[in-house]
TrEMBL record:
<protein>
    <submittedName>
        <fullName>dUTP diphosphatase</fullName>
        <ecNumber>3.6.1.23</ecNumber>
    </submittedName>
</protein>
<dbReference type="GO" id="GO:0004170">
    <property type="term" value="F:dUTP diphosphatase activity"/>
</dbReference>
<dbReference type="Pfam" id="PF08761">
    <property type="entry name" value="dUTPase_2"/>
</dbReference>
<dbReference type="InterPro" id="IPR014871">
    <property type="entry name" value="dUTPase/dCTP_pyrophosphatase"/>
</dbReference>
<keyword id="KW-0378">Hydrolase</keyword>
Length: 210
């Protein structure tokens, strides 16, 4: 199950990267830089200011972790096929599950390793997931949803500015949340079902399904 989920996510990440840039692997994009910038945003959502009262915005924290996961998968894909990378990642994730700890300190350790190695610290990421009680199945569901939305945006004019982020008075990510809840995330074609459901809702797209 874990390896299948990893393979699915890696294949989806490869697809979206290719959609944005056909030769993305050869470009050697600074994925590690995107990770540490997202990490700073993540810390802001969790809270770190001792001079004011702050409560962790847990939903935003989990969304930022999903964004970091996108960049981490891209870094991993620089080193092999989705199948090869999934096997390696599964081995790392199958080791003893980490206990919850100090999220801020673990985030800083993760960021430091990212900057030092310019690679994805999967073990450190798993530690942060444990810190905020983000189960892998939840990560999978959230990642697939965000990936499908990113692909949907690209296919419907995101680059040229013609894409409508707001439909029927609601943002696209709200529509995504609705359809995701109505579908079985364990289905092999979960991502395709999500895409089809979004397309059916998008203004002017229903006729294209015929």
């Amino acid at each position: 199950m874990l390896q299948q989920q990893l393979q699915t996510m890696l294949a989806l990440q490869d697809d979206i990267n290719t959609l944005v840039n056909e030769n993305w692997r050869a470009q050697n994009f600074a994925w590690y830089r995107a990770i540490w910038v997202e990490s700073a945003e993540l810390l802001d959502h969790y809270g770190w200011k001792w001079w004011k009262k702050q409560q962790p915005e847990m939903e935003q924290v989990k969304l930022e972790l999903v964004d970091i996961w996108h960049f981490g998968l891209s870094l991993e894909l620089q080193q092999g096929t989705p199948e090869q990378v999934a096997e390696k990642m599964q081995q790392q994730l199958s080791e003893e599950a980490p206990n919850a700890g100090d999220f801020r300190e673990n985030l800083e350790a993760f960021t430091l390793k990212t900057l030092t190695t310019k690679q994805f610290d999967l073990v450190g990421f798993a530690q942060m997931m444990a810190d905020v009680e983000l189960a892998f199945d939840d990560l999978y569901r959230r990642y697939v949803g965000k990936n499908v939305l990113n692909r949907f945006r690209q296919d419907h004019g995101y680059k040229d500015g013609s894409y409508l982020k707001l439909w029927a008075g609601r943002e696209d990510n709200e529509h995504l949340a609705d359809v995701a809840q109505s579908l079985d995330a364990s289905a092999e074609d979960f991502s395709n079902q999500l895409y089809t459901a979004l397309k059916a809702r998008y203004p002017g797209s229903a006729k294209d399904l015929a």
